[in-house]
Structures are given as structure tokens and as C-alpha cells.
Design a protein that fits this description.
487 residues; 8 strands
Length: 487
Amino acid sequence: MQVPEVDHECALAALVPLVRAQAERIESLERQIAQLQKVVMGPRSEKMPSVAKSLGVGKRTPAEIAATRQERAEARDSMPAVRIEHAVPDADKTCSVCGGTQFSKLGEGRTTSVFEYVPPRIVRHEHVQEVLRCACGECVLTAPGAPKVVEGGRYGASLMAHLAVQKCADSIPIYRIEKDFKRQGVAISRSTMNELFHRAAQIVEPLSTRLLECVRTRPLVCADETSMRMLDGGEKKPKTGYVWTFVSKDATDGEDIAYVFAASRSGETPKEVLKSTAGTLLVDGYAGYNVVAEVASRERAGCYAHVRRRFYDAQKSAPIAGEAIALILEMYRVEHQALEMRIVGKPEHLQLRKDNAAPARARLKEWLDAQHACTPPQSALGGAIQYTLNQWQELGRFLDDAKIPLDNNISERALRRVALGRKNFLFVGDLEAGKHVAGLYSLIATCEARDINPFAYLADVIARVQDHPANKLDELLPGNWASIVIR
């Protein structure tokens, strides 16, 4: 029997696609396993070096270091001081030279500063109302009583502000605050503190709502979202909710940050927040923001930080991804030059971008097109390339307006407090509780962005927002409140 001849070249050619597909599948599975291992056994993502570090810039000058030291010295000098005098013991008042015992003071003495920590404490204010009776004996006058934030309540605005700042600024759970109070000899139950926290959020809700309205109408809005678990009804197992942040910043209005809590990650939240507004929306590549275009006249801008992160992650399996990172850093170098030249947001800044950043972006596009043709789409590098190409037009918006930054890092920074909070207090009680946390986050984060003490702010506005005229509500927003206090 004659054995038919086998065309080995054809057989090998037929196997090439199969081997390539299997290699891509293996790489994809290895990447998924590595991601799962990070979730279970370590940090979810490797720390990517900052842009400043990658560019070799950002080191403080000797003048800046000296200025920082001067600020610290002034801060120390402005601290409340307690004078403690130490006298020479009588037993030591004998001269080692002549044996005499007559001594007189030499100058003001030697002063040494020792910094001690004085724990904060809760003080009970006893308000005594004067009662007067007329000489006729028929009329009795009583002085106004203590101002109460909550009718019939025993706790003041400063205590409510303290709870809000501890939880929303410092991410301290209520049960830990309860332990701290017990160490001070103050017995306030956890349930009472929870009620005070949510009551504070309800009182300042007109302000957090108005702050969101101010942010949503600005020409440039940056947005991002992250998860936060919540309880739902009587179910013991938490569900996944989401905190959305909307940030606006410019030289005139300053930086304002607003948070919105929602039960899902659907695009309905940004759609509802940004409807009937115009301008630019700077976000990552998440498709949930696509629906904003249906209800708003906003052009979408892309984020190069997310692009850089994807290529950075792809470097482990494809070192050639470093070429894309280098081209992205060229664009960031232009931003650093504008910062040094103090032309950020000005026409000169836009011209600098067109002269230097646009050519780097064009070279990045050529590189992407060349690599896209020969890179497996399921690989980490292939995913990074496709992610970048999918929003290439959005990633070019910064060449049309100097006020549009290259990335959305301002929103990511705003979400760090949420990430820290969910590690500490794990979840919120329900949808309404999540909204309360988001409202307080908004006011506290905006205060911190504007270098305002959030405790001083909340202690003041909680006490008076309920009686403040509704048509003058903007006076109590953080930016305006700070200017009033300064005056």
C-alpha cells in the first residue's frame, strides 16, 4: 500500500494560527491569574512612578526648602505656650568657687521648648437663663436659651462637626470614636453618634446640593467613580454601591469637589448630574460616560494617566511598551515647562502644546498603528493599544484648550478618601446613608482643597444654615465662607 506524501509546509502553515491563538490565550490567562493573585495576596497594582519622577523634575530648590523651614518655625512660634519656670533648688545655691550663698538672676534664664500633646476633650456648657419679674408681680421675662441645632437635642454643632470630620476627613469609624470618647470619660453611645452624624448631613444638605450645582455647570468638569459597599434592607450581605466625584478647578473660582452616591455604576448618574450643561468632560475610557452626550453639550476629553498606566502594566510582558510611555512623557514635559514659565491655561501654553506636544502625539499615533498590526489583541500590550486608539479623538482635546489638563488625576485624588473610608468603615447602612456620606465628603473635600479647616467650617455652618436666607445660601459655601471669615 502506497503512503500518500504529506505536504509538510502546508501542515505547518495550518498550525501557525492555532499556535498563535493558543499563545495569546495562555498570555491572557497568565495575566488574569497574576491579577487575581494581587487581589488575594497583595496590592492590586504595582506603584507606578510619578510623572515628575519619570521626568526627573520636581525637586525642591534651596529657596523652597528654606521657605518651608521658615513656615514651620512660624507655625511653632504661633502655638499656644505654657510657661513653666524651674528654680534652682536651695540645696544647690552654694558657690563652687568662693562658697558664697548670695545669688542674683542672670538675664531671663535659659529657655527650652518641649512639645507636649494635650488631648482634645468634650466640654459641657451649662446655659443659665436669667429670669426677671416685674415689680407689679404679674410679668416674668426669661432670657433666650441656648441655641440648639436639633430641637430638644443635647449636643451642639461642634460635636456634630467633629463626628463628620473624623469619619469623612480622617476615615475613622464611629466605633473607634466611641472608644476615644470613653477614654475621656464621656459616654455617648454609638447609635447616638450615628444619629448625630446623619443629622449633620441632613442639616448641611442644602449646601452640598448647591455645591454640586456649582460644579456641574462649570466649563470643565473632571469625573471618576469607585465602589463602596452598602447594606440593602434586611439583607445581611452588602451590595456594591458607587461614589461618583465631579471636580471643577480654575484660577478664578478655585477648586470645588462634589460627590454623589448611587446604587449602580450605570451612566445614569453622570447623565443626571450633567444634563443641560455645556463645556468639557474629562474622564477615562469608561463607556458609562457616553450617555452624557445625549443630554449635555459637552465634549469629552481623554486621560493620559490611564493610558500611561496600561502601557506601564504591559511592560512586564512587552518591554516595547516603554516606547509609548516615553512619548507620553514628552507631552507631560511640555506641561512642566508651562508650569515653570507660569503660563498654564494661557494662550502661550496652548501654543507651546501645539509646537511640542502635538508632534509627540503624532509620533505616538504612528507607533500605535504600527504595533496594532502585529500585536495580539488579547495581550496586555494589545489591550493598551486598543484602549488608546478607541479614544484617540478625546485624547487630543487638550490641543484645543489650554485649560484642559492631560489627565484626570484631580478626580482620582478626590476618590482616595473614599478608598480609605471603605477600608475602615467597610460599608454604609443604605442608599440614604451613602448620600449623607457623599454630601459631607463634598463640603469637607472642598474645604481641604481650599486650605480651609473643615471642622471650623462645619461647626459654623451647621449652627446657622437652618436660619440662613435661602437666597443667600452661596455665602455659606466653602469659598465664599472663607472670604467672609477673613474679612
